[in-house]
Amino acid sequence: MAPHADRTHQHLSTPTVLARRAAALGVVVLVALTGPLPSASAATTTLTPEAFGAVGNGKVDDTAALRRALDALRPGTTLKLGAGKVYAHDDVLTLRTPRVRIAGKATLLATDESRSAVFVDADRVEIDDTTFSVRSTTQRWGTFDQMKLRLGERSGIVLRRVTVDGSAAAGIYLWGTSHFVIDDVRVRDTRADGIHVTGPSHDGTIRRAVVDRAGDDGIGIVSYQQDGVPVKKVLVDAPTVRDNSWGRGISVVGGEDLTLRKVDVRASSSAAVYIASEGSPWNTFAPVRVKVQGARLRSSNTAAGVDHGAFLVYAGNPGFAPRDISADKVKITGTRRQASSQVGIRADPGCSVRKIKLSRFTVSGGGHVFSSNVPASAYRRTGWKSRS
């Protein structure tokens, strides 16, 4: 994926409160700026969008005011968003200052789906309690400008209790992000993945994420060879994924030293858990040293045209064999009965898997429990229980 070049918009400043009141009375007022716009200083640790002309009613375009507010931040300061406010923006917003915080139970509402991203391009940024939304979408987009909340190749970014309500592409998109923490986020109604981790991202944690009705994978970790190195050392802890309209519940398509813990997936379109290498046109790395530590997978593989079952390990890229994959304490119920198996290990011609260990699976309902087209020496199953 590659971003569009930034385009330039010219916006008039939002009138001051005095000017608005005067206009309502039919009075002409000439306002002279006697000093610079507010800026962060040693004595100013908190700024507000309103100080830069934002209205926050969801109707007035606040793009210019939000940009001034973001650019005025200095390390150590907070941009406090007004509770219940809706700040509309018609272009991409970018945060470039390190060690700042954005906080408040407000909404940043994109009004143009083609330029709807908010881009965090700085180290050690913290965002708390804020909702990122888009007014409407007409199609699935695929460039940086449409990733609703995009985290760049930066370190130490923290998201807490953030909500993404609609996106023209992915909901939360990480490329090359390191030492990140994403806690208690809610993502819903995205055109692409709910949460997508890719590029040289590494050393991060996603805890208690809830993803509803994603347009593709609920949570996707994808490592493309074109990016040079795979995603490494990411923990996805206690995720909940429900009712995605396409794709997998949680996918690991290439990457090293990745852990999925206490997974809960309901009504995934394809596999609930998918661990794979993929060939052309995706050309991904192999998944290596991937652990699934507890999972509940319900009503998986709802799409009749996709034969995944609930849990699938797949090798689709010659020379990039999934290996050292383990899953333990996986409970599967109600998989679409027409799937060829509920749990599968598959390899395309010329591809292979190595050292796959599947322990303590409990499978209830659904159709055939397990299938594989790889040598029995490539995997081990222990402690399985099956109930009709």
UniProtKB/TrEMBL annotation:
Gene3D superfamilies: Single-stranded right-handed beta-helix, Pectin lyase-like (2.160.20.10). Residues 170-278 form the Right handed beta helix domain. This is Right handed beta helix domain-containing protein. It comes from Microlunatus antarcticus.
